[in-house]
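Narrative summary of target 7.
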Amino acid sequence: MRSSSRWSLGSWVIAAVAMLGCSHDWDSLEAAVEPGAAGGVGESGASGSAPAAGGVGASGGAGGGVSSGGAAGAAPTGGAAGVSQEDSGAGGGDSGQGGQSGAGGSTGAEIDPTEVTRAQYEAWLATAPEASSQDAWCAWNAAFAPDAACMGDARVCVGEECGGHPQVCVDWCDAAAYCRARGKRLCGRLGGGSTPVGAQADASISQWMNACSAGGKQKYPYGSAYSAEDCNGPDNGQTGCTKGACKSQKAAGLSGCQPAAAGYVGVFDLSGNAAEWEDSCSAEGGAGDSCAVRGGAFDSADGKQDLRCSASVLRRRDAADPAVGFRCCGL
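Modeled conformation, tokenized:
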């Protein structure tokens, strides 16, 4: 709510500090700035072939933080997503639910820095979450455990080191329930609600697209020219399915797979590794609704096309795939 007072910025800061007293929870303070318009990037529309499902959503406590795009009280440049430094857990590893915090900025595109990891998701399952609190279109979803047959696929990581990999083999409703439990939501429309089907490539509408394209400035997270090696896509010589291991990798394991634009640095794996569910569905009917999957994966058919920020495919809400995961966004 805006105040009609004519106080200066300095006066407001002094007053805020006085009210906080000795409780210096600076990470809970976010700059309230107006959304900046941003355009779409490159070619929009479906990518032609469905990327493998999977992906790790971010875990950790709910919360955003002060945008890295500028000091509190000043609008960050260009509607940046900005990564908060509430906690150093980018990449998660085996740290359970104490992983990443959100990223927040002038567009309200608060987004977790990595996909949710298996360790984070398993820690949530250990709390025995209730299935009865889901929305009506997820009433069919009786449990949140990853699909057992899917987890047995040869593309799914096996072993103790897999805790830091994206959690794959979960359906849209599993992903939405996890994010809600963290006080966040499955990434959707900037400002709240779902991204309309057909608007996934619009960086002024989609939280996910805004972060991946650095506010509509580039085709891939790292720039506008395709690189086979920056992200874990099919053409990566070490990790992809065309030449490499054909498996997911640890979240944030490839340092080049992040936006390079100021204010967007620190959000990893929006292209490749595991593809990601988005809150963008054709209807609110139930298991058969078609929902968007973003970013492509290590086993996508065409890395150059499927790993574009603008690319998306529609999958059934109840689908579980060994190369599809998710991440969470702010409310």
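Residues 1-80, 82-108 have pLDDT under 50 and may be disordered.
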